[in-house]
Amino acid sequence: MLARLLVDITPARESAAFRRLLIGSALSGIGGQMTNYAVLLQVYELTRSSLNVGIVELANGLPMIVAALLSGPLADAVDRRKIVLITCLIQTAVSATLAVQAFAGLDQVWLLYLLVGVQGMVAGVASPARRTFMPSLLSREQLSAGAALQTLVMHGSILAGPTLAGVITAAFGLKLCYLLDAVSFTFSLYAVARLPRMRAAGHEARPGLRSIGEGLRFIVGRRMILGVLLADTSATLLGMPIALFPAINAERFGGHAQTLGLMISAVAAGGLLGSVLSGPASRVRRQGLGMLVAGASWGAGLTAFGWSGAFWLAFLSLAFAGAADVTSVVLRTALVQGLTPDNLRGRVFAVDFAVGAGAPALGNFEAGAVASLTSPTTSAVSGGLGVVAGAALIGLAIPALLTYRTAPGPPPNRPAPVLAE
Fold first, then answer.
1. What does 80-91 look like in DSSP terms, one character per residue?
2. Got the DSSP string for 182-221?
3. Residue 418's beta-bridge partner residues?
4. What is the pTM of this model?
5. Which fold does the domain 208-406 belong to in CATH?
6. Could you tell me the CATH superfamily of domain 12-202?
7. Exposed e or buried b for every residue in 154-176, given b needs 16+ CB within 10 A?
8. Residue 418: φ, ψ to 5°
9. How far apart are CA 390 and CA 308, in angstroms?
10. Phi, psi of 189 (to 5 degrees)
11. 40, 238, 278, 297: most buried by Cβ count inside 10 Å?
12. CB 181 within 8 A of CB 34
C-alpha cells in the first residue's frame, strides 16, 4: 500500500540517461539556489534596499521569458542536445564570473544585474530544448512518473540550496556559494554530453516569426493543450500568495522573522511531500480532470490560509496548497508533453515555460496590488476563491479536459534517438 503512494522511480530505474539527467539537475539546481541566495544577499548588503532586491527577480525573469519564446523554433530546428550543452557551458562561465567579482570585491550592483540577466536569458534559451528530453527518453505511460521525479528534484533543490547557502555563508562567506554553483554544472554537463543526438522528428522548423506563429496556432487549435495552459495561468495569476506573507505575518503572527521563514518554506515543504507521495498522481488516466481538481485544491488551500487565525493552520494550509500544486504540475507536464508532436515540442514547451515562469510573477504583483487597495486578507481569500472559480469555468468551457483519458503507448512522433557520431 505504501509503495503505491510513494513516487514512482521506474523511469529513473529503467532509463540510465534520464537517471543521469535527474542527478545532474539535482546538483546544478542546488547550486543555482545557492547563487540565488548569494545574489539577493549581496545586493541587499550593498544597497539596503528591498526595491533593489526585487529588481534582481525582474532582471532575471524578463530576459528568461523573452528568450524562451524566441528560442522555441531553434529547439525544433537543430540538435537539442547541442543547445543545452552550449547554454550549460555559458551558465558555468556566468557562475564563475559571479565568483570572481565576489572574490575581487568589485561590489557593483549593475554588474550583478547584468550577470543575472545573462543567466536568465541563457536559461530561457535552454529550457525549451531541455524539456524535450523526457518525452524522447520515456514512454508515454511513464511521463507522469517522470514529471513527478523532476518535481521532486526541483522542490528538493529549493529547500536544500538556500539552507546550505546559509550555512556556507555564515562559515565562509557568500563567495563560496558562487564557486560551488559553477562546479555543480559539471554534473549536468556530463549528463547531457552522454545523451544521443536529439533532433526533431519529421519536418524541422526554421527559426523566425512564422515558426513561432505555427507553434501558437497549434496550441490554439488543440483545445486540450490550450485548456491546460489556461488552467495553469488562472491558478498562478489569481492565486500567488508570497507577496502577502510579510503583511499577514505582521498583522497576525507578531512579525517574527522565524514565522515569516516558515511561511515561505511551507509551500515548498508541501510540494516536496506531494512529490514524494506522487504515486497515485502518476497513475491518473483522466489527467485533465485531475489537473483541474488539483488547481481548485490549490485555491482552497490559499483561501484557508487567508482565513487562518492560528499560525499552525496557516502553515498547514500553505503546505496543502503546495502539495496540490505539485499534482497539478505533474499532470500538466504529462499532458502537454504527451500530446505535442516532436517537431513542435520546442515551440510548445517554450510557451509552457513562459506561462510557468511569467504568470506567478504577475500573480504576486496582482496579490500585492489588491492588498494595497483592500487588505492582505481580502487579497488572499479572493485570490483563492478566484482560483476555484477559474478551474470550474475552464472545465465548463473546455469539456475535453474533463473527459480526456490517456491510453498506454508511446508519445506521438516519438523519435528513435540517433547516436552521436
1. HHHHHHHHHHHH
2. HHHHHHHHHHHHTSPB-PPSSSPP-SSHHHHHHHHHHHHH
3. 197
4. 0.78
5. Growth Hormone; Chain: A; (1.20.1250)
6. MFS general substrate transporter like domains (1.20.1250.20)
7. bbbbbbbbbebbeebbeeeebbb
8. -100, 120
9. 23
10. -60, -45
11. 278
12. yes
Question: Ramachandran region of residue 253, left (φ > 0), alpha (ψ -120 to 50) or beta?
Answer: alpha
Cβ atoms of 8 and 135 within 8 Å: the answer is no
Q: How far apart are CA 310 and CA 149, in angstroms?
A: 33
Cβ(22)–Cβ(149) below 8 Å: yes
* CA dist 50 → 94, 256, 371 (Å): 24, 18, 18
Domain segments of the chain as ranges: 12-202, 208-406
Residue keyed to cell 543555482: 32
Q: Is there a shared CATH topology between the 12-202 domain and the 208-406 domain? A: yes
Q: Closest Cα to residue 334, out of 417, 179, 257, 225?
A: 225
CA distance 272 to 270: 5
219 grid coordinates: 496550441
> How confident is the prediction along the chain (421 residues), in pLDDT tens digits per residue?
556 778 889 999 999 999 999 999 999 999 998 898 888 888 888 988 756 776 777 788 888 889 998 888 889 988 999 999 999 999 999 999 999 999 999 989 999 999 999 999 999 999 999 999 999 999 988 998 898 899 889 888 887 888 788 888 888 988 999 999 999 999 999 999 999 998 887 655 566 677 888 888 999 888 899 999 999 999 988 988 877 887 888 889 888 767 776 787 788 889 888 888 777 877 788 889 999 999 999 999 999 999 998 999 999 999 999 999 989 988 988 889 888 998 888 999 999 888 887 788 778 778 888 888 889 899 999 999 999 999 999 999 999 888 888 765 444 444 434 333 2
Q: What secondary structure letter does DSSP report for 415? A: P
Phi, psi of 194 (to 5 degrees): -80, -10
